Amino acid sequence: MNKKPAIIAGLVGLGLILVMVVGLITPKASQVRKKQKEVVAAQQQEGTLRTRLEQLQAAAKDAPKDRKRLAVLQRQIPPNADLPGIIRLLNSTSDKSGVDFMTLSPGQPTSAGPISVVPVQITIEGGFFAVDQYLYLLEHLPRISKVTTLAMTSTSSSTGVTLQVQVAANFFTTDTSAGPGSVPGATQSSAPAAPVPSPTPGG
Known about the structure:
The chain has 203 residues and is α+β, with helices and mostly antiparallel strands. The chain is built from 3 helices and 6 strands, in the order H-H-E-E-E-H-E-E-E.
């Protein structure tokens, strides 16, 4: 009996079976690999989202402290020039220090990047301790100021020595439209004011 046809038939059948198995398994294997990649990507995204969630939870926890710090910063560098507020603040400072006389001459705010600078010329007269106290209070105002120049002269009389101090100080605002040439332009609260004399009870 010739077994060759049977062997050939068997091999052909086996080949067909292998082709069918490969045809069925290969797509499934490709799908499995694709799903594995999707799982890895999902795990990575989950890790990123968990980290972001922890950051947001930490930010929410610190929000009350951040709001307090922001409120302090807004008092130190307010959102507008508020020249009347500067004048009231400096008048209050002269009253507390006891200087004999003070004049203020606010200038036109100028833009300086993310902020605007409000220049103020201040002249004060008084005794040594009053002037010293004024300069100390000027340095510790609730609104940030920076003294750029300071000139001092003195006069003697029968009542003692009187000092006259001329101070150029800058105040600041986050209003970038406070200065000339800015967009949309200088705001009403930023208009320059005339010199303001401020005699004190001692004057």
